[in-house]
Amino acid sequence: MLIDFHARTLVAFRNLPHQWEYIGTKSALGATLDRLYHEISRRQEALEGAYEQNPEQFDHRTVLSR
Question: Were 10 and a residue from 4, 54, 57, 62 both cysteine, which residue would form a disulfide, CB within 3.0 to 4.6 Å?
C-alpha cells in the first residue's frame, strides 16, 4: 500500500505487481483502511480456525498461502 496524497511522488510505483493499493487522495484512505482491516480479520479467522481443527499439526504457512 502506498499513501501518496501530498506531493504524489510515488505515482510511478502504483502499478507494481506486489503493490496492493495506491492511495492518491485523503478521501480514498478510509475505504482502503476498511478493506485492509477486513483482510486482516479474514486471515486471523482462518488461522484460528485451522489451529482449532488440529493444534498438533498446525502450520501457519499452509493457511496463509491459501
Answer: 4
Q: Where are the beta strands (DSSP E) in 1-66?
A: 2-3, 22-23
Residues 6+ apart with CB under 8 A from 64: 43, 46, 47
Look up the pTM and report it.
0.68
Phi/psi at 25 (5° precision) = -140, 150
Its domain, for residue 55, covers 2-64
Residues 37-65: tens digit of each pLDDT: 999 999 899 899 999 998 988 988 887 77
Count of domains forming the chain: 1
